Amino acid sequence: MWVFYLISLPLTVGMVLFTLRYYAAPHVPRYVLLTVGYTWLSSLSIIILVPADIWTTISSNHDNGGISFFWSWSYWSTFLLTWAVVPLIQGFEDAGDFTVSERLKTSLHVNLIFYLIVGSIGLFGFILLIMMHKRWSGSLLGLAMACSNTFGLVTGAFLLGFGLSEIPKSIWRNADWTTRQKVLSHKIAKMAVRLDDAHQELSNAIVVAQDTSNQMSRRDPLRCYMDVIDDMLTQMFREDPSFKPQGGRLGESDIDYDTDEKSMATLRRHLRGATEEYYSVYMTYVLEALQLEDKIKNYERRNSTGWKYISSFRPARTGKFGSLCDTLEFFWQCILRKQVQKGLAVILGVMSVTILLAEATLLPSVDLSLFSILIKSVGTQEVLVQVLAFVPLMYMCICTYYSLFKIGTLVFYSLTPRQTSSVSLLMICSMIARYAPPISYNFLNLIRLGSDKTTIFEQRMGNIDNAVPFFGDKFNRIYPLIMVIYTLLVASNFFDRVFDSLGSWKRYVFETETEDMDGFDPSGLIILQKDIGLSKEAM
């Protein structure tokens, strides 16, 4: 029972550590890294516990004390971190105050407003439940757990639907070099505009900070706070000597920052936010475009180079195996990788169709879920059961998180390799943790273990059909049908055509790569050619 879990847990720990190291900015505090890492680990532990729980239920193994303990640890750790610890630390990190106590007060104030709103909604729902279902006999704990995941089940269905359609399509499109070049030329042009805006915003913030510092005397009681801001500017210029503020200007609201401690905290927060925005855009797409240009040139010159990969971004390989490594890299980068991407897109497309079929046939009594059929067919083989449960469940998680990141990067946070701030990391981990239990609950509905077999996860989560009657007795079977219809509309680009016809409403829809495939963007190509020239000079 524990073989698969003991293998998956170290791999999950390694994946969490690698992700943190890849995305976190150097200045992120250790307590933030520990909080984010533990939150990711506890939420992903729910996903790797589901296969073990399924095997225990199928095999009628009554020795389930270990799974019950790990369920309690994973779920309640995730719950407390998501709704209490992470928001508090996030508010603390986002605050611009100068002392620990003041930053903590600001965080408590911001989160108290949020908790009051959520608590009011929860109280209204609880009163409505009592009015509509007076003879409800379930446990209060089961009700609370079920209600806390209802939002995740409903919104998660739409996030899952978008990912099921978009991930296979984007992998297939990106396998074509010309198509990817078109997409990147558009993205670089858009990012260049964002970079200019971020540069202007940072320049304004620097001018405001410098002007405030110049006007403040050395004996001013707020001077100690201004010195902290001055140190921020000094460190920023030391880390990036090439940055030159241009066109910074003062606005009408920028002349009152030296009135009290709170206004100084606002100035500090504004400067920090402008700095993070400036360093979180543009370079990711430029680097990818330069590497793609490198691949195309290597493929075109394959006969003259002897089918060896000659990179423009690193020194030539030397030594006994240098030539062999160059040849292997050429075959992978220029020949095999495209075929692997297309094969992966086909496999994921088939999995998406299989998941949609399983979701669409939840209401009828006929079991058409391929995952359910496969798991039941190998019911006596522990490892196979857990692998067959884990693979589609992980794919569902990836699809959901892909859509979640799409929304987040457009509205809430930035996710940039080695430049992601503390606030963005904490917001991302909070969102991931909120959707792990609902995704697992949805998957358990797809495999149909039978009415006489209930997993420990379902026992602890409660049954929403019974606990939340105002959603209907068949809530868990009906809402996936809506998700299936939504996914088909996304796959057919229905929403793109609708929002195109509505003009300005386009800003409220997901940004997909379909609109960037219509030819090259001239401004993006000009910017890219300049960066290619700069990279050659650096070499």
UniProtKB/TrEMBL annotation:
User: According to its record, how does it sit in the membrane?
Assistant: Multi-pass membrane protein
Q: Which Pfam families match?
A: LMBR1
Q: Which UniProt keywords apply?
A: Membrane, Transmembrane, Transmembrane helix
Subcellular compartments: Membrane
Q: Which InterPro entries did the record assign?
A: GPCR-associated_LMBR1, LMBR1-like_membr_prot
Q: What is its main location?
A: membrane
Q: Which GO terms describe its cellular component?
A: membrane
Q: Report the superkingdom from the record.
A: Eukaryota
Record carries keyword Transport:
no
Positions of transmembrane segments: 6-24, 31-50, 70-89, 110-131, 143-164, 343-363, 383-404, 478-499
Q: Which PANTHER family match?
A: G-PROTEIN COUPLED RECEPTOR-ASSOCIATED PROTEIN LMBRD2, LMBR1 INTEGRAL MEMBRANE-LIKE PROTEIN
Give the UniProt family note. Belongs to the LIMR family.
User: Which named protein is this?
Assistant: LMBR1-like membrane protein
Q: What is the lineage of its organism?
A: Eukaryota, Viridiplantae, Streptophyta, Embryophyta, Tracheophyta
